[in-house]
Amino acid sequence: MAATTAVTVTPLSPAVGAIVGGVDIANGVDDEQFAQIRQAYIDHGVIFFRDQHLTEAQHIEWAERWSEINVNRFFAPVEGFPQIAEVRKEPDQELNIGTRWHTDHSYDQIPAMGSILLAREVPASGGDTLFSSQYAAYDALSDGLKSVLRTMRAEHTSRRTFGAMGEKSAPDTTTRIGNAELATQDAMHPVIIEHPLSGRPALYVNVDFTIKFEGWTEQESAPLLQYLWAHAADPVFTGRFRWEAGSMAIWDNRAVQHRALNDYQGHRRLMHRITLEGEAIGGAA
Description:
By secondary structure, the protein is of the alpha+beta class.
C-alpha cells in the first residue's frame, strides 16, 4: 500500500539541496507524493532522504519511475544487478571516487539526467558529499562574462578520467573503476545551458571532463576554465550532506556539481548508484 503521509521539503542550504521527509520509498510513493518530490528535485537541484533501506530490486524500481537507467561503463557493478554501480572505498585504499568537483556523464552527447545514490555502509564520521548550484554560479557571473560565455561551447571527454591516462594516475582505483578501453566518449556542449526542466540558465563546465573551448587550444582554454572551475565551487553556492546508512540522494547533473570528501582513511564506505538517462541540452537564449 502506498504511503499517505505528507511530504516535507526542508532546504539543505540557501543555495542548493533539500531534505525530503514523510516518504517511505520501500512502502510505496503515490502519484501526488511523487509529483511533490519531483518538483523539489527541479527546485533544489539535489534532494535527500533518510532511512530508506531498499533492496537492490526496490532501488531499481524507484529509479525506473524517474527515467530509463543508464548502465555505467566504468564502475564495478553490484553482483547480479548490472544497473547498480558500486561507489566503494575499502579501509586499505587511499583514494576515493569522485574527489574532485564534477558533473556525471557530461562527456555523453546526451548527458545523464542525474543519479540516485543510496548509502549502504558509511564511516562513523567523514565521507560527506558537497553539492554546488550551477544556477547560482551562473547568476553570480558579471553581465559581461555571461554575454561572452553564452556564445561559447566546450569539449567534454571521458578519456582523461576513465581512459588509460586516468588508470595510470590513479592505480589505487583500478579494482573499482575499469574498462579504460571504453573511454571513447567526446561531446561538445554549451558553456551556459538552459536547463531542460526548469528553463533556468546554468554554468556547465567541470574539472573532470571539460578539456577546452570549441575553437580554442587546451593551453588557451586553461586560464578561463580554471577560473570557472574555481567559481563553480565557491562555498556560497554549496551545501554539505552527512550520510547515514539508508540515506539517499537524487541529484540533477545539469543543475549541480558534486564532490565526495576523502577524510575517512582506514574506514569502509559503500554506496550504490543508479544513473538516470537524460534528454538533450541546449544553450541558454
